[in-house]
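Shapes recur. Our protein:

. . .
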Amino acid sequence: MRRPVARIDSQGVSAVKVGASRFSWDDPYYLVLSMSWRAFVALVVGLLVAVNLVFATFYWLAPGAVANAQPGDFWDSFFFSVETLATVGYGVMSPATKYGHIVATVEIFAGMFLTALVTGAFFARFARPKPRLIFSDSAVIAPYEGGRALMVRVASRRLHAISEVRGRISYLRTYHLADGGTFRRFFDLKLVRSENPVLTLSWTLIHPIDAESPLFDMDAERLRAEGPSLLVSIAGFDEAISSTINDRRNYRPEDIRMGHVFTHILQDMDDGAIQIDLTRIHDTVPAPEGQAVGFSDS
């Protein structure tokens, strides 16, 4: 028996699941929410066309069932089915026989259920909270308080603040065993500050690289050899939509810049306000040697 295979490409994580299907009809709610908008609209249009074709066939197989429909014209039957399913009823064509009334009644009930399902699916997709967070394209390892630190910058695209924000950085490393096997392990990296009462501007998550850090003595050669991944996750309460949000970003070795720092994106305005330039949130520059590095934060 052939086993289903699904490929996952999400947030920088690429994997293949054997025994799992990307589209599973026994989980329709997940299927509707996980597909793209283009696929969802195509599914709805295809479903409506298919239902109308089925009922049009029933009308077409019984000549005279629909008044004012040309005998043998399938398109008249199809358009009558569309009008009936949508409860439009222009009045030109109507059921003419008991058979026609029965089929029209069944179609009206089917249309009511189908409309409710499609409306609910559209609402569920629109009602899902979107985090709208921006993660810096790169993580940097920069000088920090006489040592080094891993830094990732995050900000919100929305104008309203995000409250009770919690940040987390996990370090995923692959170990090679003596017998030739491998296993992967997550380490939670200690942050200078893992919670933020409010995220209004930007937030730089900082992990000091000390003797207890999995990144201790990390250099470019070791980074390439270990091929680690950094998973940065953010959770908080979005005041604009009154909902809890969660978002994450995965960083591969090629996304980690050693000896770089983030450029400043905050600027004091003449009226006392603070300006943040989100277009430069990803920008980094080489760190000045032998100097402590400052950073902007909210």
